[in-house]
Amino acid sequence: DTGELDWNPSASTDNDSDGCQDSDEDIDDDNDGVLDINDNCEYGYNPGQADLDGDGLGDACDSDSDGDGLSDANDLCSLGDTGWTSDSTNDNDGDGCQDWGEDDDDDNDGVLDINDAFPMDSTETSDFDGDGLGDNQDQDDDNDGYSDEEDAYPLDPNQH
Fold it and tell me: Whole-model pTM?
C-alpha cells in the first residue's frame, strides 16, 4: 500500500498501529473489522458495535455506557439497567445501580438490604418504638402521639 510519505507514526496518527495514517488512508482506524464510515466507535475496538444505551456511541467509546447520568468510572453498574437517570429517588447511595432490582445495598453501608433494618439510611442505628422508621427520621420516637419536638420525654411513651 502506498500512502503519505514523511509522516511519523504515533498513537495520535495511527491508532491501530497498522502503518496507515488514520485521517486519510486508514478506512478502519481501530482495526475491529468495521469500516470507519459505519463504526459507532471509530477509534475504540468494538467489533460487535455494542451500544447498551442505544445512544449511537459504542460502549467502547461511551463514558456512560448505560446512560444513567453517571460516568462508567463512578458507576458500579455501568452495564446495568438503561432507560433511567440516577438521582436520589431511585439511586439512594448514588452508586449508579438502580435501587429497585439492581442494588442489593441501597445505602452502601455494607449490609445487604434484606438484612438491613434501615436499607435507605447508613447513619441509622435504632428504632426505639419498633415502627420500622429509624429514630433519625421518626418524628415520634416513643409513638405516644406527641412529636419529639413537643414531647418533654420523647423516649417514654407514658409521659409527654
Answer: 0.62
